[in-house]
Sequence to fold (1032 residues):
Amino acid sequence: MITKKPLFYWILHKHRGLQLFLLVLIIASLFFKVYPLEMQRKIINVAISLKKLDLLYLYCALYMGAIMTASLMKYYINVLQAIIGQKILIRMRQELYNHVLRMPLQYFHRTQTGIIISAMTSELNAIGTFLGGALAIPIASLLTFITFIGFMIYLNPILGLLTMLIYPFEFIVIPLLQKRYNTHNRKRVHTIRAMANLVNESVSGIHEVQSNSSFQLEQGKLDLLIKKLYKTMRRLFIVKYGIKFSNNFFQSLGPFLLFLLGGYLAINGQFTIGALVAFLSAYEKVYDPWKEIIEYYQMYQDAQVRYRQIMETFDMPQEDLLDIPAGKTPVTLQGRIEARDIGFKINSDIQLLEEISFDLEAGQHLALIGFSGSGKSTLSHLLSQLLNYSTGSLKIDGYEVENLSKLDIARNISVVAQHPFIFTGTVNENLLYSCKALQAADMEIELPKREKIIQIIQEVGLEADVLRWGFRSVVPPEKARLLAPKILAMRNIVNDTLRKEFEGVVEFYNAEVFLEYSTIGQNIIFGEYIDTPSSDHLLSRKTFQLFLQKTGLDSALLQLGSNIADTTVTLLRDMHEDEYFFQGSPMEPHQFDFFQDITRKLKKTDLNHLSKNEKEALLKLALLYIPGIHKIFTISSETRATILQARHNYLSNVEKINLEQCRDGTIQQQILPLNAQQSETGKTAEDFTPFCTSQYLYRHTLMDNILFGTVVDRDAIRTQLSELALNHFSDHGLLDEVLAIGLDFHVGSKGDNLSGGQKQKVALARALLKETPLLILDEATASLDNASQTKIQRYIDANLRGTTTVVAVVHRLDMISGYDHIIVMKAGKIVESGTYNDLLREKGVLHELINENTE
Amino acid sequence: MSSSTKTQSNTVSSECKLTCDFEILQKSPVFGGADTEVLKLFAYLAKRKKYHPGSEIIAMENEAEAAYYLISGKAELTTMHHGNKVVLQHLTPQTFFGELALLARFKWFFSVQAVEPCEVMIITRESFKKVLENFPNRRERLVEKIVQLRVERLMEQTAFLLDKVPSHLLGKTGPAL
Fold:
């Protein structure tokens, strides 16, 4: 098992070729490390003493060349080493994650997520840096060490051997210190994990913490750990720098001996000065590999500690047969279930299920009902191998479930949990999750077609939600281009047939009318620029700026901006901490202080004395102002008229658009020879889109495009008008594309953008799309409203009978009459088993339960 | 063109958004005596909404989230009794309704439908809470006013119902007509 493997298993078994290459490289680089020393000796002994300049230049060039080569090689070696480390880490992570994903459920119940995450991420990372040089560094350092010592002995055997004397001391002292370091280090990892756990827990339970106001309590828990960590770290550093100190001390003993003895020998003429210099350099160089060996030793100990702790975290055997044994093909089941005397225990003494026996023919539907805690869900988990029964026999088509591989199970059984998990991504990705999983496991499986997906989301009642997501999306231009004709067709329907109904609920775009629910910026340009996300960005367009200056609109807008800033700052003086109060102003909470400063300045001076930056901020505020929403300020009808006039001016003079063609009411399909004019003025085609009924607006949602205006009353749309419009659209076959767009809706992290009911519907659709012979529903419709539950139950009763074996844990008794077989459970045992009618006739527990419920 | 006339009528009412709503609140029984500062915030956070005749302003059984003030138009406050719709009150302009929603969460136990085109001002419980978080000492007085209004309303509605009951069923001590 992977968790039992020693650290060096990874080093010795992965990327051996690369590691060998690294070693060769290191040995080759040794020569270039020793060679400069020899040159040093020659420079002093030969070139200088013979006073030969040409020799001096030659030796110096060779010296420099060798040093350059050595450092370049060192550079390459470092990079290579890091790469090897990361490569080994990849394998380690892959295999470990593979192991973690397959561990039994019980493990995850009792292990904190924080531990698993930090073990998989940061702790493994720290090992990665060690892995790359794990083999090469010690071998290379030892060789370098020996080479330098050898060179020293070659220079002077006595002196060389003498300098060796100090090393044995270090061999004793340092491991002793290191041992203490390890103990503290282990404690450190432990404490940090405990801290991670604690923070994780308080953050996950922040509701509980805040509602109980248990800040002191939680703080106290953390304080204990902080203190503990401080103590450990203090000891750790004392030992760590102790090691450093002893190293340095022994190291400086060397030169002392050298000068004493070498000097003595030199004075007596037994040793040349050149040799002494080379000796000193060599001695210094000896220190490098020695330091590397020590560092390596420390890193090794550190990595070892971390590695053991990571592996201990995941040290639990996997229970099931995970892969299909070689040579066997995955089974395809029909779905006949045979249960004989099944028992299930946890912690080897708590009996959760006993004496469970039943038979179910393929294609039949079984409902498991009973009191909560009676073992219904547990029984359903046994079928899908999420849990493993302790005694008895559970067979599907004669195969013992515990002998089937996970892949066999996944291929034949779909499970919908009570609280299904939704993965971060789009709706579509979630719907296809199960199918893609099988595809990834090398099954010859085709992904369901779009028609099939749409059919299933209709069956589970997700269609309305998907449509809503679709309508609310701003579709990226390349997709929108294909979609535009259909959207414009829907716009026609709204305009021709439904205009009266939407009156007052939507503010339609009308070139002759000031738009109360659009920003001042949009009111002026009456259109959108593809590269300008919101109105305040208009200022970055040169043409727009120029237009404001030319028309004198800039001073009017500046005045408007300063009025808005002033009223906002005055009214929200005491509540600017709470963003809730900014709903009626275009100002953002974080801008409050900035605008407060501006308004203070304006008390003493006038608008012209503001800095460029401040003016721009006020202009932006004015451009973002929406009269119908931002209650903080009211603009006069004169201002409205001015802006309306500016709009006409802007469209005809800046964007060269003939507004006559853009009138409200009639649709002109061909308004755009615009592109031709635009390319004349040097602008790109489709840069600007006016609010004309013939134009698709790329920066707007599908809904805004269809309604061709701004929604004023969202509730009215939702409760009354959407159905009306949808009927019209679907009569014209316009909705499939919108559904497809809606399927691309991003569900948020872990499906946070979805309601509980939507999550269940997605999970149901996901399971149904897999089309397996067995379907297990564990209260799969419990978070849905009655109508949706009934709809789905009807689909299961009508469409899955005979083709799919269904085992459903059911909470609501009015849902079970359609099932072929009913099992009533109590305290881990079956108390009643039979058809719905038989059980009612016997007037047993089911009869009692139903009567209790109806009374 | 209906759309432009519509927008123009909007324009008229939006000429004085904040100040108009401030004045309305100032004249109202609940908020009347409150400080200008507090009133301004309520006016700032209040929303306006228009209803066609026949549409529901409040739907029974829905979560109560806001109090309403009828600015213009007529509406009916009704409840269901043994499957029949019973009118409890005719609402005329300058009346508050649903004010209990400012104090507590509950499901509406009555409905309100617009009889004529109506415009209402809406104050949500959330905005009520947010403002009073910043002025905690004003809370008590406002709560008292709301409860007083509610009591008054209860008496009115009871009287309205009793008026419909034939006098012989009410016994001798029935209300003098």
Q: What stands out?
A: Residues 78 and 88 of chain B are 5 Å apart (CA to CA). Chain B touches chain A at residues 1-4, 6-8, 10-11, 14-19, 21, 40-41, 43-46, 49-50, 52, 126-127, 130, 134 (CB under 8 Å).
